[in-house]
Design a protein that fits this description.
The complex is a heterodimer of chains A (111) and B (114).
Chain A (H helix, E strand, L loop, with lengths): L3 E4 L2 E5 L4 E7 L5 E7 L5 E8 L4 E4 L2 E6 L4 E6 L8 E8 L6 E3 L3 E6 L1
Parallel strand pairs in A: 2-11
Antiparallel strand pairs in A: 1-3, 3-8, 4-5, 4-9, 6-7, 7-8, 9-10, 9-11
Chain B lengths: L3 E4 L2 E4 L5 E7 L5 E8 L3 E10 L2 E4 L6 E3 L9 E3 L8 E8 L9 E2 L3 E5 L1
Parallel strand pairs in B: 2-11
Antiparallel strand pairs in B: 1-3, 3-8, 4-5, 4-9, 5-6, 7-8, 9-10, 9-11
Classes of the chains: A mainly beta (111), B mainly beta (114).
Chain lengths: 111, 114
């Protein structure tokens, strides 16, 4: 069963614009991670945010976490064509079976 | 440093055939797992292992077997392939399995069962 649900399902922007995608989840979490998947490739870890953190930055990535709303957002600033990929959130509710992935946001950055 | 290596990358099976998807990691991670990825479904956990000799079922284990004889290798066996097993399969490893450390994924195996 899906814990995290990304929104929107697909997003198309021009190069240089910012891209924002959201993840909502149903039950309390310990951690939340964002991954990127290029077409035909495996997932690559982007960033991890813990439940006691509200915001985290990594290069052009900014992740926020609102545990009261059970949601997280991933912002990619000054997007590049190379950012074209699918982005997944993975929520950790504790235990080995409790890391679940959402269905992803497909981002297209048009040069 | 190769990370997580999966073989083969592509495979076509006939219904009823069996095969083994190979997965190896060179990071000395205790935790390894297998996922399948289907359109609109995200990744679903098939089986996982918390160390050599220890395996357990995930969300969708039916039709699959695993074993973990070494820290490095975690093969996934399809016992009698069915069209419903057509999917992309990913192996992953991490230092811990609880989602508090990043997972490293292989490149995937695209399996078609006809």
């Amino acid at each position: 069963s899906q814990q995290g649900e990304e929104d929107p399902q697909a997003l198309s922007i021009q190069e240089g614009e910012n891209a924002t995608m959201n993840c909502s989840y149903k039950t309390s979490i310990n951690n939340l991670q964002w991954y990127r998947q290029n077409s035909g490739r495996g997932l690559v870890h982007l960033i991890l945010i813990r439940s006691n953190e509200r915001e985290k930055h990594s290069g052009r990535l900014r992740v926020t976490l609102d545990t009261s709303k059970k949601s997280s957002s991933l912002l990619i600033t000054a997007s590049r064509a190379a950012d074209t990929a699918s982005y997944f959130c993975a929520t950790d509710s504790g235990g080995y079976q409790k890391v679940t992935f959402g269905t992803g946001t497909k981002l297209q950055v048009i040069p | 440093n190769a990370g997580v290596t999966q073989t083969p990358k592509f495979q076509v099976l006939k219904t009823g055939q069996s095969m083994t998807l190979q997965c190896a990691q060179d990071m000395n991670h205790e935790y390894m797992s297998w996922y399948r990825q289907d359109p609109g479904m995200g990744l679903r956990l098939i089986h996982y292992s918390v160390g050599a000799g220890i395996t357990d079922q995930g969300e969708v284990p039916n039709g699959y077997n695993v074993s973990r004889s070494t820290t490095e290798d975690f093969p996934l066996r399809l016992l009698s392939a069915a069209p419903s097993q057509t999917s992309v399969y990913f192996c992953a490893s991490s230092l811990t399995g609880g989602g508090d450390t990043e997972a490293f994924f292989g490149q995937g195996t695209r399996l078609t069962v006809v």
